Amino acid sequence: MIIDSHCHLYDNKLNEIKQEILKSLTKTPQIAICNGDNIETSIQSINLANNNANIFATVGIHPHEAKTFDESSIKKLENLAKNKKVVAIGEIGLDYFYNFSPKETQKNVLIQQIVLANKLKLPCVFHIREATQDFLDIVKDLSQKYNFSGYVHSFSGSIETLKIYLSYGFYIGINGIITFKNANKMLDVVKFLPLNRILIETDAPYLTPVPYRGKLNRPEYVELVANKIAELKGLSLQDVISATTQNAKTFFNLPE
Ligand code: NI
What we know:
Helix 4 runs parallel beside helix 5 and helix 8 crosses helix 9 (237-252). The protein has helices at 18-27, 39-51, 73-80, 103-120, 132-143, 159-167, 184-192, 222-233, 237-252; strands at residues 2-7, 30-35, 55-59, 86-95, 124-129, 150-153, 171-174, 198-200. The chain is of the alpha/beta class. The chain is built from nine helices and eight strands. Nickel (II) ion (NI) is lined by residues 6, 8, 35, 91, 203.
């Protein structure tokens, strides 16, 4: 069993290979966590999960979509999260690289969704880009009042930032980026990162690992990420797969 902890299987780019992907999930076997990024794609993720035993869903509003958030959004997410296949609130966060939504809106939408996760006792999947300090300020503030566990997907920061995330007990998402030629900094991150904090992910259809760059990413390629981690840490592929599968089961509270 291998788990792709972060992908977007509803993405239209995957339409032509969707059936192939669904079939490959049952073969390995493999679990894929399909992440919503707005209300509509959260519903699509749940539909995929309801129709496929190997898929679980998250519901949430991505920082890019924060401007679509309104008073009814939290209630909608709460109702969607009642579905048994929903395992987290995500992906939520801050993205100051693209700034598709105003910063203050992004922060407000993130905070409200962390509060919701606390209420529903669900973990949070975070997308943080060029916004580490604001994110840490929010985490510091909210962790005094609320209980929430976190997974920082597609981590790309420094080891200093990593240490702070680990001090909050967060899991760290590692993906195909570590197979890219310019991945130097991330290689040190992976060597430093304890195996019991790593979640492996594809972010499919994006971030396709070497040697499939230029093609669409898919959950089965997550094994290439595990393989690179094994190489960097001097472990066997099986050790990395077993540990990260257990990490994902623990974080998402997946059924045995
Ligand atoms: Ni994503």
